[in-house]
Each structure stands twice: as C-alpha cells, then as structure tokens.
Amino acid sequence: MDTDLVRLNNLIDETLTQMEDIAAEDERSDNLVSVLQELIRERQIYVESLINTAIDETYATALSEQLILTKRILQRSSKIMSHRQSLLKLKRTHKRQIKIYQNIDANR
Hints:
Elements: H1 3-21, H2 27-52, H3 58-106
C-alpha cells in the first residue's frame, strides 16, 4: 500500500483523537474540523487512485482494508459530530436559562 495513504490514515486517526479530547467550544476545534476535511479529501484522491490502478486481485485486499477503514472513520466522525452537536445545544439551552434568570432578577 502507498506510504502516503498510510500516512494520511494515521493523520486522520490522530485528528479524530484530538477532536475527541478537545472541548467543542475550543477555537482549535474549528481548525481540527478543517484539517480533517482536507485529510479526508486527500485520502479520497489516493483511494480513487488505488482503485484506478488496480490491475489484479492483489489490490482487492488493500481496497477491502480501505473500505473497512472508511467505514470506521465515518462511524467515528459521526459519533464525534453528534456528541459536539449535543454539547453545543446544551450550551445554548444553558445560556437561555441564564438570560431568563437574569431578566427575572432585573425585574425584581
């Protein structure tokens, strides 16, 4: 398998790990999302290249491994996205509640 593809897979894994470890409201979070999008785009190019250059059955194993890895990346990314959306929604709810209490206190 292409060493660049292995490198990209490792970078994607590291980026996802960082995203799991960083708070959703941290500014670095947005940067990590951008980095992940770029890495995924580059990976897609390499996987397409691998598909287009497949000449015999020996590529089948490599392609199968990449398909499995793609599914794992998708599942992991979806889980991170869902968790972050929940956190951000909860944060917005808390901000609204605080504003309501502040308005109540101001009207006393």
